[in-house]
Each structure stands twice: as C-alpha cells, then as structure tokens.
Amino acid sequence: MLRYHLSWLLAALLCTCDRAPELPQAEIAFPVALPAVMPPPPQPAIDYDTTEWTELIRLDSSIVLEIRYATDSNFMERRIYDCGRCFYRPAVARALLAVHHDLRPLGLGLKMYDCYRPGPYQQRLWDVMPDARYVAHPARGSVHSRGAAADLTVVELATGRELDMGTPYDFFGEEAYTTTTDLPEPVLKNRRTLQEAMRRRGFSTIRTEWWHFNYGGPRFPLSEWTWACP
What we know:
The protein contains five helices and seven strands; from the N terminus they run H-E-H-E-E-H-E-H-E-H-E-E. The chain is of the alpha+beta class. It has one domain (about 45-215): 2-Layer Sandwich (Muramoyl-pentapeptide Carboxypeptidase, domain 2), CATH 3.30.1380. The protein has a five-stranded mixed sheet with strand order 2-4-5-7-6, with helices on one face. Strands 1-3 form a two-stranded antiparallel ribbon. A hairpin with a 6-residue loop joins strand 6 and strand 7 (about 210-215).
C-alpha cells in the first residue's frame, strides 16, 4: 500500500512539472473616447466697450473680412489702418448679421471691405486724398465714423469667390454707379441680390458706389475711438 501511494505522488509531481506555467493575463487597453467635434479655440478677450461697439466676427466667424485700408490694396495704394478689425454699433452689427443669414440659403455670405472708421483714420484718408468727391472731410465726418456704414460684397460660402459686381472695390467711375444699367445681366443680377438683401434689413445704398451702404436707424455720434491691435 505504501508503495502504491508513493508511485501516485511521484506521477502527480511529474505531471505538475511538465505543465507550462500560467502567465498573468495582459490587461486590455480600451481607447479613450474623443469628442466627435473638437470645440473651437477660445476667442480673444474682449478689449472694447460692448455697450458701444460689437466686433462683427464675434457674432458669426463665417463673415469674411478683407479690410482694405489695413493693407495697400486700396485706391490710395497705402496702408491707413494700423490693423484690420471690423466694429459696428450693436444695432448695425445685428442688422448685418441678419443680412448674412438671409443670404446663407443661397450659398452666399458677406465679405467686409471697410466697417467703422475712427476719426483719426478719417483724417489719415483726408491727408492722402483731400477730395470731398471720394473722402468726407473729417470736420463733417463720415457715416463710417459713426459706426453705421458698410463697404462690402457677396461671396460664395463654399469657395470664398466674390460675385462679379462689374468693377472692383474702390473703383471711381460710372461703371460702379448703382444707377448704371448698361452692364451684363449676371452683374446686374448680383447687384440686385446684394441691394435687396441690404435694404431688407434697413440699409440704403448710394448712387456712386455699389459696395457702400448706410444704416437707416438712429444717427449715431461721430467717434474718435480706435481699436487695439494685437
């Protein structure tokens, strides 16, 4: 009987030695879920009086800015503004936002050439071009300096391409007049699209510049305030 137990014990030990040692199971790493859409970067801190002014692209960043007087791509071929930002009186900014949203179902939107123009910048324009046919005298002031005038055009939202308005911005001649009808039909149609959208939201056009519109609300005071540059 003792011999039988010893044989069984020896067999069990041999079986245990032949078995491969069990390795600890590797931990399964599951990927961390990421948000489907990354949040946009935070906007810069507000550095202006929001009771007096609204920076237009804070309302909708799809509005295109091409502030020409912050470059030398303008009729004077020199830089007038220290940097390009687009401000309006709050009521005017909301009206422009409404125009931009009205155009969106057509796949169109606004591009801004010039917005609020501080009094000191109006003086710079006059110093370069002292001609009241093109630049308002600083003493009288411009509607731009009241934060209630817009120089703008219409672009395709998908491509950023400007609609053909017949002339470039800051073209001084009868081809740019809103009363000129001797133009190709696509150009006249594009101008009507812009003018109707602007008038619907309280803006009026002027005869000599298809791109210029004045807001028809309250008459805001002239302003000397100048925005900060980064």
